[in-house]
Amino acid sequence: MNERWAWPLLIAGLAVLGVVLAVADISIAARWPTPFSDALVGPKYGTVQAVPMRFDRSGVSERLIFASPRGIGSLVPYLALRAFLTNGAGLVLLALAALVAFPTRARSAVERLEARHGVEIALGAGLVMVLLTLAAATLLRFTLLFLAAVPLVLVIALVAALFGIACISLAIGRLVHRRFKLPAVHPLVVAFAGALVVFDLAVIPYAGVFALAAVAMAGLGLAVVTRFGSSGGWTFGDLNF
Known about the structure:
Blueprint: H1 6-29, H2 37-41, H3 60-63, H4 77-101, H5 103-114, H6 118-141, H7 149-179, H8 187-202, H9 207-225
Helix pairs in contact: 1-4, 1-8, 4-7, 4-8, 5-7, 6-7, 6-9, 7-8, 7-9, 8-9
């Protein structure tokens, strides 16, 4: 096979896998609710009657509903494709935008993540930051003066997590590049493939929400330990002056 088709085929395969997993998520959630699955693939169809689509005048959504062979729930490729073109595309665009805006900082963060025990450090720091963020938000809720700071704290944590997820996407793409010995390509294509892997993990039935939570937590921790990709990194030595 010509090497120039390696990356397009990989990206196409990841996209198809994401749609297939979203179909499975929708089908299973029609019978047994999956944790926070509506946030990942959107509202579900029931096993008997479809939920009407507000802007779907063509009726495609109602025609593309298939009964599951095992009776688990309806198979709805239309909703799965819609989830991929909305949530999946949004995740990819945010990741690429962060890498385009901060290429040097992203490289520094990815190098830290790929170092020895980098993943464990990012996950540990992310867990600590999640607990600290929840504690800060809880405390600020009980003070009238600083109540308005709660959304600010949450926005800062979200921005940090998105930056970290973008760096993790690039790191995953680089890992795939090395493992499968793919030809050299633009780093944004590598990050694009990595972001698709993250989306595929997020739409795995039941386990997807926990996989996405782990990636987001590691991304938050990575942003903290690298100070948003600063070359100096984060260290307690800064407290000695």
